[in-house]
Task: inverse folding
C-alpha cells in the first residue's frame, strides 16, 4: 500500500507542477537552447565540441579582441557568407559578439537557415574575457 500511495502523490505533484506552470509540458518544453554560458562554452571549446566558432562583430571589433580560431563573419554579411563557411548544416556552431545581443540574433538566423546546432555565447566576448578565457588580438 505504501508504494501505491507514494506513486499517487508523485503523480499528483507532477500534475500540479504542470498545471501551475512550474514544470512546462508542451512542444515548447523541449525548446532548443539559444545561449550558453561562458563556462560551458569554454569547456566545449577546450574539448573540441564546436565545429566552428563564428565572431559576428564588425571587422574592427574582431581585430581588437576575439576567441582564438574564430571565423570573422559580421552579422550584416551572415546570410550571404554562411553557406561557404558552413557547408555542413549539422555543424556545431558557437556564435558570439561583444555582449551577446548580435550573436543571439545570428543564432536565430542560422537556425532559420537550417543550422540547428548554432548557439550564442551568453554575454558575448565581455563575459568570455571577464572569465579570463583565452583571447587573441
Result:
Amino acid at each position: 500500500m505504501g508504494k501505491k500511495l507514494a506513486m499517487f502523490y508523485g503523480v499528483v505533484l507532477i500534475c500540479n507542477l504542470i498545471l501551475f506552470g512550474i514544470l512546462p509540458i508542451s512542444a515548447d518544453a523541449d525548446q532548443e537552447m539559444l545561449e550558453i554560458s561562458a563556462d560551458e562554452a569554454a569547456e566545449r571549446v577546450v574539448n573540441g565540441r564546436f565545429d566552428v566558432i563564428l565572431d559576428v562583430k564588425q571587422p574592427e571589433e574582431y581585430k581588437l579582441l576575439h576567441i582564438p580560431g574564430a571565423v570573422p563573419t559580421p552579422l550584416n554579411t551572415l546570410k550571404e557568407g554562411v553557406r561557404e563557411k558552413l557547408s555542413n548544416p549539422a555543424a556545431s556552431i558557437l556564435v558570439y559578439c561583444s555582449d551577446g545581443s548580435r550573436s543571439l540574433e545570428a543564432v536565430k538566423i542560422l537556425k532559420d537557415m537550417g543550422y540547428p546546432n548554432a548557439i550564442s555565447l551568453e554575454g558575448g566576448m565581455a563575459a568570455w574575457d571577464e572569465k579570463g578565457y583565452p583571447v587573441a588580438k
